[in-house]
Amino acid sequence: MSRLAFHLSTLALPLYAVAGLRLRARTHRFPPADGPVFGHALPEDGEGGGANRLRLLVLGDSSAAAVGIARQEDGLAPCIAASLARRRGCRVDWHAAGFNSATTGMLRDHVVHNLEPVPYSHILISAGFNDLKNFHSGRRFRQEFGGLIYALKARFPESRIYWSQVLAPDDVPALTPLVRALLRPRAVEIVRLGQCLCRERGVAAIPAAKGLPRRAFCADGIHPSEEGFAGWAEHVAEHMQAG
């Protein structure tokens, strides 16, 4: 049923385009947060031996770029690093490679091969929502997301790779009821396809949080707030710790 609803929703593309333009016209466009996109986190004792050091890459869209908040240090990558440092009792070096409006295909084609081949222990992919809102077909998402996974595995063969699944449209405050209704079946299919690719290609799929409060989002009602990034990071770190 979800696949049929996905294909039927394509017929509503003209309606979605009009609704999307109206939504975009009244939504404030935030820049990426200020600050360096590299850093490190230490455990509570302030130590962190080199032998146990973790290296984290967060690759993705505007959420990975900490769009919507003032400081990079409050973004997803440093918050995950801080949580892992506390949980593991070791130093965690982090790098955020995030870009406004990036789709999985853009990351595959224009970003991965330009990343320095650091031996990351953990890589988080935070992408897929732009593929969803851009009404990419299932075939296109499968090819581009699958290609992104292959590209990361080829460049960072020793890394553990995770995908943070896309948030359900119903949990994004800024979306109108019409936009939510049009995106809902497409989100279900995107998540299903992403989960299948992750299983096939050795990536851990981390489920999206549900029922988020409004304070978890910044003023635009789309991107996370500082509190939202902190909660998301704890959620991700818990899955990374378990894995």
The average pLDDT is: 90
**What is the chain-wise order of helices and strands?**
HHEEHEHEHHEHEH
Q: Rg, please?
A: 18 Å
Number of strands: 6
Count of helical stretches:
8
Low-confidence stretches: none
Strand content: 5-15%
Q: Largest sheet, described in full?
A: 6 strands, mixed
Gap between N and C termini, in Å? 32 Å
Structural class designation: alpha/beta
Helix proportion range: 40-55%
Widest sheet, order of strands:
1-3-2-4-5-6
Shape: globular
Give descriptors for this structure.
6 strands, 13% strand, 243 residues, alpha/beta
Provide an overview of this structure.
With 243 residues, the chain is of the alpha/beta class. Helix content is 44%, strand content 13%. The longest helix has 25 residues. It is globular, with a radius of gyration of 18 Å. It starts with a helix and ends with a helix.
List the helices and strands and how they pair.
Blueprint: H1 2-9, H2 13-25, E1 38-41, E2 54-60, H3 76-88, E3 92-98, H4 104-111, E4 122-126, H5 129-133, H6 138-155, E5 160-164, H7 177-201, E6 204-206, H8 226-242
Parallel strand pairs: 2-3, 2-4, 4-5, 5-6
Antiparallel strand pairs: 1-3
Helix pairs in contact: 1-7, 3-8, 4-6, 6-7
Short description, anyone?
By secondary structure, the chain is an alpha/beta fold. The protein has helices at 2-9, 13-25, 76-88, 104-111, 129-133, 138-155, 177-201, 226-242; strands at 38-41, 54-60, 92-98, 122-126, 160-164, 204-206.
